[in-house]
From TrEMBL:
Transmembrane segments: none annotated. Residues 4-248 form the Endonuclease/exonuclease/phosphatase domain. PROSITE patterns: AP_NUCLEASE_F1_1, AP_NUCLEASE_F1_4. This is Exodeoxyribonuclease III. It comes from Sphingomonas humi. The keyword Metal-binding applies. Belongs to the DNA repair enzymes AP/ExoA family. Keywords: Hydrolase, Magnesium, Metal-binding. The gene is xth_2. Its cofactor is Mg(2+).
Amino acid sequence: MRIATYNVNGVNGRLPVLLEWLEATAPDVVCLQELKAPDEKFPAAAIEQAGYGAIWHGQKSWNGVAILARGGTPVETRRGLPDDPDPAQSRYLEAAVNGVVVGCLYLPNGNPRPGPKFDYKLRWMAAFEALAGKLFDLGEPVVLAGDYNIIPTEADVYKPERWVDDALFAPDVRAAFKRLTDAGWTDALRHLHPDEQVFTFWDYFRNAFARDAGLRIDHQLLNAAAAKRLKAAGVDRSARGLPKTSDHAPVWIELK
DNA sequence: ATGCCCTTGCGTCAAGGA
């Protein structure tokens, strides 16, 4: 079972890229972030045509998350975080697919720091951490996949010194991510590629992708039941090179 | 220290992203 997460940066603007990638790689489950579309503008027909059932949690202009299942339909288990600090922002959706619980998240960016946006990021992370605590011991495999907007360590950014004041690399943000892995959640990509430089995002500025000036901010955290089944993980870098593409690349894991 | 690029929205600029 292959589970992918992909911040599409506008599901309608990137629809040709999304469909090309689905066709080329055929993941079993896909978590999408940054739909930037209200519910009624989610391209459900085109996605169904590609062979995927879907559930989505949209919002006008910003945010928005969706879960796709190849040849089926995800069974929704949660919409929004419990104690969400701002329920108007669509950033969390959760579903069961073939016995695996998949949480799809779009964690707030938090810039500029300090400020209200950074405070919101911290509050959102606290609510997410509380939910993760409940999900870990569910008994079934759980995968929390999405755009975390967190650079976990200096190894996850092309030039750490440039990012010391950024909300993605802030000490309390990195500490929150470390608390999750210390609690037993497995950072799938880093677990299988401990010494490799692996990026999932390259900004549109300064020809960043061509220079490989990237960040690793899209993650899949696995509870113990899911980690036992982890076989492989990787980044579909080729999608980042397509015309009119997202600034993120899809990240995938393979579970036995 | 700042802009770079790219998206959406009632829109020909602003705001958000990371």
